[in-house]
TrEMBL record:
This is 3-hydroxyacyl-CoA dehydrogenase. Belongs to the short-chain dehydrogenases/reductases (SDR) family. It comes from the Bacteria. GO terms for molecular function: oxidoreductase activity. The keyword Nucleus does not apply. It comes from Elstera cyanobacteriorum. It holds the Pfam family adh_short. Keywords: Oxidoreductase.
Length: 253
């Protein structure tokens, strides 16, 4: 699918992977709606990019539905969804103060897995109603997992479970939407220089970058965005998770 002139939704679009993806999509001619939590960060990101700000919490069914409707009113029904919204807190199942709070585990699952599915179900409903393009494609859905889905470290039980769920639902969703020409793909980033990582000490960041076999650096939002565009253009990519990780395999800790 050529994104030129097409409407796109990007969740988590106010920062990190989402912001980088929105920037690349706009440069390629797409009409982008940023979906993120309401606040100055979203407004500033939308203004900087020339995108539409659609505030919503991805875990809120009615709120996200309203955001998707706002985007459709402004740009038309989206043919592309890139779901980047997520959180990555670390906590052991049993720490020094006892068992991990169940609500803490549930929050990670809610944002990363249920929030992703919430965006997928709403975006897909719109795509399935559209007329097909010349190649019979109606839309593309790209979700975000993590290498932690496959090699979760100690303290990442909740995060790994949430991202494993995102990867696991890719194929059944692709199979469901295939008859209508909507593709579903997932990207599993490795160690990326996102705002979450930027909060770590510089020495830690450098050590993590050096642990990547090649290229020995942190991944960037631009790397992620380039793969998004490649997936859009390559129609045979469907129902799979692509690792974007420089060949890293995570150790236990």
């Amino acid at each position: 699918m050529d994104v030129q002139g097409q409407a796109a939704l990007v969740t988590g679009g106010a920062s990190g992977l989402g912001y980088g993806t929105a920037k690349a999509l706009i440069a390629a001619g797409a009409k982008v709606a940023l979906i993120d939590l309401p606040g100055p960060k979203l407004d500033e990101a939308a203004a900087a990019l020339g995108a539409l700000a659609c505030p919503a919490d991805v875990t809120d069914a009615a709120g996200l539905e309203a955001a998707v409707a706002k985007a459709a009113d402004a740009h038309g029904v989206a043919r592309l969804l890139v779901a980047c919204a997520g959180i990555a807190p670390a906590a052991r199942a049993v720490g020094r103060e006892g068992p991990m709070a169940l609500d803490a585990f549930g929050k990670v699952i809610s944002v990363n897995l249920i929030g992703t599915f919430n965006a997928v179900r709403l975006a897909a409903a719109g795509m399935l109603s559209l007329d097909p393009l010349a190649d019979n494609e109606r839309g593309v859905i790209i979700t975000t997992a993590s290498v932690a889905a496959f090699e979760g470290q100690i303290g990442q039980a909740a995060y790994a479970a949430s991202k494993g769920g995102v990867a696991a639902m890719t194929l059944p969703l692709a199979r469901e939407f295939a008859p209508k020409g909507v593709r579903v793909m997932t990207i599993a980033p490795g160690i990326f220089g996102t705002p979450m990582l930027a909060a770590m000490p510089q020495a830690v960041q450098e050590s993590l970058a050096a642990s990547v076999p090649f290229p020995s650096r942190l991944g960037t939002p631009e790397d992620y965005a380039a793969l998004v565009l490649s997936i859009c253009r390559q129609t045979m990519l469907n129902g799979s998770t692509i690792r974007l990780d420089g060949a890293i395999r995570m150790n236990a800790k």
